């Protein structure tokens, strides 16, 4: 089957894109509401796109009635937000935060999620998340009814048990984030495998570094 995206209703484009581009990691985004309480909402149009500067990107759509989601309104106002990664322990509470509550609802309270203070931004992070990233807005790209937000990570909090003894690499037996597939289907990263480029291929690599220089990712 083929689909001409230049001539396809938006709902069909959404279905096809989200059915095939997956799994998508879930950012449970916490922001500060104007009234002062915590706001939390899951976003799976999310990923990291650079480390220098450290940029994460989140895609927002409007609610079915066309109104702007609270998370987007809050981060426009405060210019700050926190990304909390989600594992199985947080899955049931994450989905509750996906309910389109009125702006005066504190989703952390509602879902029974414990908040901790952020260090550099005015928002809470989740106490139990494996990893929380405090972000400042780098830019917002607006489209009719949606927005793409670039956030610069300014602080990362990692739960100690998620790292190896040296505190450098993630422990894959502990850190197993969930991600969204199509519709209401999710996947947990509990079946990981290693895949290395064959050593003999190194002769074909262009722009090799000199042996003394550290390789950048
Ligand atoms: C797993 C999951 C992923 C979601 N991803 C997005 C997303 O990427 N962008 C978006 O606009 N809404 C997304 N939503 C819907 C919002 O989470 C939902 O509309 C939420 O109620 C918005 O809350 P807020 O008004 O407090 O921001 C997602 C929902 C779920 C359950």
TrEMBL record:
Residues 20-171 form the Flavin reductase like domain. Keywords: Flavoprotein, FMN. One of its GO terms (molecular function) is FMN binding. SMART domains: Flavin_Reduct (SM00903). PANTHER family: FLAVIN REDUCTASE LIKE DOMAIN-CONTAINING PROTEIN, FLAVOPROTEIN OXYGENASE. Belongs to the flavoredoxin family. This is Flavin reductase.
